[in-house]
Amino acid sequence: MSFLLKRLAGLAVVLLVASFLVYGLLYLVPGGPMAFLLGNRSGTPEQVAAIRAQYRLDDPFLLRYLSWLGDALTGDFGSSLVYRQEVAALIGSRVATTVLLVGYATVLISAGGIAMGLLAGLRGGRLDTAIGVLSSLFLATPPFVVGVLLAIVFSVGLGWFPVFGPGEGLLDRLYHLTLPAITLSLASAAFLARITRASVREELNREHVETARARGFGERHIVRRHVLRNASIPVVTVTGLNIAGLIAGSVVVENIFALDGLGSLFVRAILQRDFAIVQAVVLVLVTAFVLINLLVDLCYSALDPRLSR
C-alpha cells in the first residue's frame, strides 16, 4: 500500500508540473496569447475584449492558471473559438476512436512482438535469423510509409479493408481500424520482439537454469518457471513505453487514414490556433502517459515484490 501511495503522490506532482507547463508554454508565444488566439487576424476591439474576458487575460498569470486547473479537474476545458463548442464535448466525441486504435495496436504489439521474440529466443537457428531480418525491416520503415503501402495494397488493390473513416459500432470500427492499428504497431512489435528475444536468451544462460537442467527438470518446466517470469520485467518495461509512444504515434496514423480522433483534432487545433483545444488535448495525453507508467510500476511489483520496497 505504501508503494502505491508513493507512486500516486509522485504521479500527482508530475501531473501538476505538466499542467503548469501545458498552460504556461502557450503564453511564451511571441506577442503573448492574444497573438496566438488572433493569428493573422487583427480583430475588432469587441472581439479582442471578448477573447480577453473568455481567457481571463487581464488577471494575474498564476490566478489564471489556478482557475484553469480547477476547471480542468472538473472536466471543463472551456470553449473552442473555431468550433463554438465545449472542448470537453469535442474531446469526448473523438476519444473513443483514439482509445480503440491504441488498444487494438497494443494487442497486436503484445501478441505479435512477444510471440516472435519467444520463438526467436527459444528456437534459434533460421527462425531466429528470419525474425531478426523481419524486425529490422519493420523498424527501418517509417509509419507513414507503412500506412500508404497498406492502403495501396489492401484497400485500393485488394479491396479488403476501407481506406478512410472510423466506422460505426464496435465491430465495424475494429474493421475500419485494422490497417491503422497494423501501421501503428509494426515498429513497436519488432522492437518488443528483439527485447523479448534478448531477455529470454539471457535467462536461458543463467546459473539457476543450468542447475534446474542438471536436476532433471523438463525444458517446458524450466521455461515456464524460471525463464519467462524473470524475462518478463524488461518486456513489461518496453511494452509500457510502446503503449505510451502509441499515443503520440496515433497523431500521424489518424491523419493518414482520416480518422476523427484526438490526434487529428490536435493537429487541426494547432493549425487553426485553437488555444483551448491544444491545452486540453495535451493535458489528456500527458495524463494517459502518466497512468500507463503507473500500471507498469504496478506490474513490476506483481512480478517481483522486491521492487516495491
Automatic annotation (TrEMBL):
Stretches that traverse the bilayer: 7-29, 101-122, 134-161, 173-193, 233-257, 277-303
Cellular component, GO, one term: plasma membrane
Topological relation to the membrane, as annotated: Multi-pass membrane protein
Main localization, broad class: membrane
Keyword Membrane appears in the UniProt entry: yes
Superkingdom in the source lineage: Bacteria
GO biological process, one term: transmembrane transport
Compartment(s) of residence: Cell membrane
Entry keywords, A to Z: Cell membrane, Membrane, Transmembrane, Transmembrane helix, Transport
Domain ABC transmembrane type-1 positions: 95-296
InterPro entries: BPD_transp_1_N, MetI-like, MetI-like_sf
Family: Belongs to the binding-protein-dependent transport system permease family.
Classification via PANTHER family: DIPEPTIDE TRANSPORT SYSTEM PERMEASE PROTEIN DPPB-RELATED (PTHR43163), PEPTIDE ABC TRANSPORTER PERMEASE PROTEIN (PTHR43163:SF3)
Protein name: Peptide/nickel transport system permease protein
Originating organism: Nonomuraea dietziae
